Amino acid sequence: MIIRRQFVDTDYGQIHLRRAGEPGRHPALICLHQSPKSSREFVAFMTRASQDRQVIALDSPGHGESDVPPKQVFIEGYAEALWHALDALRDQKIMGTGPVDLLGHHTGAKVATEMAFQQPDRVDGIVLVSALILSAEEKADFQALFTPLPLDEAGTRFKTVWEKAIQYRGPGVSLEQLAYLTAEHFRAGEAYEWGHEAAFTYTDNFAERLPQLPHRITVLNPGDMLFDYTPRVVPYLKNGKLMNYPDWGFGFFDTDTDAAARVILSALDDARG
Asked: Are 168 and 130 in contact (CB under 8 A)?
């Protein structure tokens, strides 16, 4: 399956995206990445998932190859920008006009939630990979963990990010795969931690928005650093369920591609009956 890449213009600058497959009887599946990664994390998954539907993965503003905005953007802005990008694809007749499915990974889970909140009639099913509900103290701890590091000649920023990548990598992730994932951190220059800041800032809104969504929401809980936090989301789901996958870790879209595609597509299709 060929994955095509392109840019579209939005009020937040140019948005870069990857797309595979063609519009068909299933809604297009929109993939939303974690921070500070990009649509690259979905490449293997897209090849598998696009066999019977269109799959589109976008780089949020300031991530991947999308433009870095002139000022910091938060989850609400990411969601608005990505809707603008999808509008551009519809105008170009690259995708259909019906509702879409959303797949959000970590920060992408919050972007998916906000997209569904902003335009609920344009969304069918939702799959969230991890869901972070935090106390004020936990939020502060996470923010401290991802505080931007200044550049220095010793390369402290790069060493620290690599050490964290080694610490948290999932089973079966090779050093080559880890290097590609780690390199995504630095594309935005001094804005490289904006995505994490956006995610933590959205914590209260996330808890408020989720119960308001009527959509069928499936939350996948892989065995990564959020495994113990994600089950807290269950009381916030008006129409959803939690599925635990402790054998999956960071990088599971590359190491467990077939299983991930099967679980995600089945959850979306089953919700439609």
From this structure: no
